[in-house]
Hints:
Layout: H1 10-31, H2 43-60, H3 66-71, H4 74-93, H5 110-134, H6 141-159, E1 165-172, E2 176-181, E3 187-203, E4 209-219, E5 225-231, E6 236-238, E7 241-248, E8 258-265, H7 269-289
Antiparallel strand pairs: 1-8, 2-3, 3-4, 4-5, 6-7, 7-8
Helix pairs in contact: 1-4, 1-5, 2-5, 4-5, 5-6, 6-7
Amino acid sequence: MRLFKKPWSLADGFIFGGGLILIGFLLQFIFGPVDWKLIASPVNLILLAALLVLVTVAYVMRDKVGLFGWLGSSEAAVPAVSCALFLTIIMGLIAQIPECGWLGNMVSFWPFVLCYIWMTVVVGMIALGGIRHITRSWKAIPYVLIHLGFFVTLVCATLGNADKRDLEMTLHEGETVSTASNGDGTSYETGLSVRLDDFTMETYPNGMPKRFASDVVVKGKDGREITAVIEVNKPLKVDGWKMYQYGYDEEAGTESQVSILEIVKNPWLPLVYLGIFMMLAGALLMLVTGFKREEVK
């Protein structure tokens, strides 16, 4: 079978990408959009372990299985990045709203997800190839940092999406609230106790809002109380949550005694930042050392 023969060509890569997109359309038609809530922790941790095993096994078997050997080559990297970039450009050109159908929610669009999984596997394979060459030359370190950082960023941004919480918390002056809800009205316990002491609002002479802010007291998991003022572009960070000033009772205006906060939590975000830092460090080292890709071939 051609699957087990090598080498696969660049043209094979684009054919593979086209087939992956067609499979994605089929899955979209049968199952609907990807439901990220189904892979929330601990499922995403299991998928992470499975991905790492898959990439490692594929790398070890690269000389025996043509498909695996191809996955770690530029003949796979170019079409994988091209397909992912093509779909990303579409996402940028089409408003990401339900009215735009399948293409209005690209992060849950099966062809988009499958192409990014493919690109992630390719990047992981290339990173493993670079790691093997570090023992021969330290100059391979920048190459590894860039690809490994890209791999970490892709994986953590994707799997972490399932654990991300973007909620709204409605506060009334003098009341303490510990729950918040998402767009469909589902309520979540936040682990925080938030009391609104005062909501203030300043306006321009024409009545347009100039500044609005919430004086709050927040009690975290450790029981410690934090007194703070939350206003637009000045969020408060507590126990991994970022609390933003989002809205108020617009009918009451300056007399509003209601404040609406947007609270966001993404436990995988530090790992995404780590991946980005690794890429930047690798790029800087590459400039300093004058690294050439041929050194890891």
